[in-house]
Amino acid sequence: MIEKIIEFTKKKMEGSHDFDHVLRVVRFCEIIGQNENAKMDILIPAAYLHDIARSLEEKDKSVDHAIAGSKIALDFLKSIGHPYAEEISYVISVHRFSRGLVPQKLEAKILQDADRLDAIGAIGIYRAIMYSALNGRNIQDTISHFESKILNLKDLMHTDTAKKMAEKRHQIVFEFVKSLKEDLMQIEKQI
C-alpha cells in the first residue's frame, strides 16, 4: 500500500515543497516515531501525504493545504482500502504551522515536529532563501521571516526526540541570522 501512496504523492508534488522535502519529513518521522513508540502505519503514510495540496494553495491563497490535503488523502486512502484513512487524514489536517494548532494524537505531534525540523538547520536556511527568491522577498523580509517563524520552531517541538534534534539545527539558523545582520550593519556603516 505504501508504494501506491508514494506514487500518488509524487503526482501531487510541485512548487516550493517538493518530494525531497517529503522524503526528509518521512525520515524524521521514522526516527522520532521509533523513539516515541508511534503507530508507524498511521505516521508514515501521513508523512508522505502531508503536503499533497501545497500546489493548490500556491495557486489559490484561500486554500489551506492541510485541510484540502487531509480531504484528498482521505478520499485516496479510502479508494485503496487503507484501514487507517480517518486517522491519517486527521494527522495531515493539523500539521500546518500557521494555524497554530496543538495536535491531540502522538502521530500528529510527530508529523508537526518532523515538518518543523525540515524548516530549521542548513536545509531550512536553503529552503527559506529559495522561497524568498521565488516570491520576491528582499533580505529584510527574509530576516523577518527567520525571526518571526524559523527561530521559534525549536520551542514548539512536542516530542523529546524532536526537541533534542532541533537544538543543533536551531543554532545553525541562529548563527546564520546573526552573521547576516552583522554583515548588513557593516555594509551600512561603510556607506
Descriptive terms for the model:
191 residues; mainly alpha; Methane Monooxygenase Hydroxylase, Chain G, domain 1; 71% helix
Tell me what you see in this structure.
By secondary structure, the protein is mostly helical. It has two domains: 1-99, Hypothetical protein af1432, CATH 1.10.3210.10; 119-191, Methane Monooxygenase Hydroxylase, Chain G, domain 1 (Up-down Bundle), CATH 1.20.58.1910. Helix content is 71%, strand content 0%. It contains ten helices and no strands. Helix 8 crosses helix 10 (160-190). The model has no long low-confidence stretch (mean pLDDT 94).
Write the layout of secondary structure elements.
Layout: H1 2-12, H2 19-36, H3 40-49, H4 54-59, H5 65-79, H6 85-93, H7 106-117, H8 121-134, H9 139-148, H10 160-190
Count of the separate structural domains: 2
Give the overall shape.
Answer: globular
What distance lies between the first and last C-alpha atoms, to the nearest angstrom?
61 Å
The total of helices stands at 10
- Radius of gyration, rounded? 17 Å
Query: What portion of residues belong to β-strands?
Result: under 5%
